[in-house]
């Protein structure tokens, strides 16, 4: 048995609960084209390019979707007319205010969404990886932001959601046993079922591999043709699939199988940790791009996925790996090359 532990960007050291039983076998998949693969645009650096240059970099590399963690006005202005689909975040520190003040939430929508005509907003992620006592603010803040979207008549264009850590799940060994481990997720998924929005989940096989000590590297990198997890009628050839399907199983058990999943962060650092080489980062992210078109054994087909992250961010806190997930250096030169076109 390999013990698979996944760690989120915010609190990875606190997580050590995910386990899957691995056996040996063969799985065959068919590759199709990627319909929606995006890249997260973090701004925690003092040497990053101007937003207008970043938009050009997205476009020149064929990156069609962006995740932005807060409504930075310079970035939003640069996005006007670009046709880049945008997921924009409501910062965690604003959730308490928006949960209890509908007017504040409505003003946020007016100032950061309605005011930027020409930006292709797709999702509003109300909070990122919130756990503990503050999680009670997520749903009321989502509701008030959604009401602001309704008032603006944008409900058919923009869906309101939140981005969660993988450890909102428990009993993920095997994936079909997975359930939600925190009570607040049930009402959130009900809200998403009612409004047609997806659940955003950050999925990091890297942290599972790095901190378990028992996961084969090739299983984490999508390069294990003969290592398979067997679970009921499905076989898993890589850790990413097993993690994503764990979310789908938990959603079904909560009674909301119609809610889709978006992988709002995934990536592999190129420096600073266990097997964090440029080669492994390139292998993981290129395979992730290809695999996003395949989907998972339980849900085949396109899986909307966002790579973390566009740039090396020198002001990120935490371990060295946190500053080394970027596809590009701040001077816009590639750390390594990945192809965002059909593979």
Question: What features would you describe in this structure?
Answer:
This protein is of the alpha/beta class. Helices cover 30% and strands 17% of the residues. It has ten helices and 13 strands. The chain has helices spanning 51-60, 73-79, 95-100, 102-114, 138-151, 185-195, 205-212, 217-220, 239-253, 278-292, and strands at residues 23-24, 37-41, 65-68, 85-90, 120-128, 159-164, 169-170, 179-180, 199-202, 227-231, 234-236, 261-266, 305-307. The strands form three sheets. The chain has an eight-stranded parallel beta barrel, surrounded by four helices. A three-stranded antiparallel beta sheet has the order 1-10-11. Strands 7-8 form a two-stranded antiparallel ribbon. Strand 12, helix 10 and strand 13 form a beta-alpha-beta unit. Helix 4 (102-114) packs across helix 5. The chain is globular and about 55 Å long. The chain starts with 22 loop residues before the first strand and ends in a 36-residue tail after the last strand. The relative contact order is 0.18. The model is unreliable at 1-34 (pLDDT under 50).
Task: Write a brief structural summary.
This protein is 30% helix and 17% strand.
> How many whole angstroms does the radius of gyration measure?
19 Å
Mean pLDDT: 89
**Tally of helical segments:** 10
Q: Segments where pLDDT lies below 50 for 5+ residues?
A: 1-34
| Most strands sheet | 8 strands, parallel, barrel
The succession of helices and strands, N to C, reads EEHEHEHHEHEEEHEHHEEHEHE
* Spatial gap, N to C terminus: 33 Å
**Level of helix content?**
25-40%
Output the strand order for the largest sheet.
Answer: 2-3-4-5-6-9-12-13
Number of E-type strands: 13
Q: Based on helices, strands and strand pairing, what is the structural class? A: alpha/beta
Overall form:
globular
Strand content: 15-25%
């Amino acid at each position: 048995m390999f013990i698979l532990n996944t760690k989120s960007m915010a609190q990875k050291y606190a997580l050590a609960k995910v386990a899957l039983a691995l056996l040996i076998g063969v799985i065959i998949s068919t590759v199709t084209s990627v319909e929606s693969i995006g890249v997260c645009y973090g701004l925690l650096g003092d040497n990053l390019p101007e937003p207008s240059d970043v938009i050009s970099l997205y476009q020149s590399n064929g990156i069609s979707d962006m995740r932005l963690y807060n409504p930075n006005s310079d970035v939003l202005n640069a996005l006007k007319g670009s046709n880049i689909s945008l997921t924009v975040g409501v910062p965690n520190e604003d959730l308490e205010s928006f949960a209890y003040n509908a007017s504040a939430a409505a003003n946020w929508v007016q100032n950061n969404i309605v005011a930027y005509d020409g930006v292709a907003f797709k999702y509003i992620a109300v909070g990122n990886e919130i756990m503990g006592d503050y999680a009670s603010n997520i749903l009321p803040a989502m509701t008030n932001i959604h009401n602001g979207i309704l008032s603006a008549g944008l409900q058919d264009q923009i869906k309101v959601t939140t981005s969660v850590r993988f450890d909102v799940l428990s009993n993920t060994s095997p994936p079909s046993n997975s359930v939600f481990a925190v009570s607040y997720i049930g009402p959130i998924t009900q809200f998403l079922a009612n409004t047609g929005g997806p659940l955003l989940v950050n999925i990091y096989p890297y942290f599972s591999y790095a901190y378990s000590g028992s996961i084969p590297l090739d299983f984490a990198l999508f390069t294990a043709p003969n290592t398979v997890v067997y679970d009921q009628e499905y076989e898993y050839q890589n850790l990413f699939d097993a993690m994503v399907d764990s979310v789908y199983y938990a959603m079904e058990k909560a009674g909301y199988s119609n809610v889709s999943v978006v992988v709002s962060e995934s990536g592999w650092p190129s420096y600073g940790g266990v097997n964090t080489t440029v080669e492994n980062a390139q292998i993981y992210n290129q395979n992730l791009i290809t695999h996003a078109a395949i989907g998972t054994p339980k849900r085949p087909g396109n899986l909307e996925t966002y790579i973390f992250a566009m740039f090396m961010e020198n002001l990120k806190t935490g371990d060295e790996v946190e500053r080394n997930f970027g596809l590009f250096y701040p001077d816009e030169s590639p750390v390594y090359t990945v192809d965002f076109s059909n593979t």
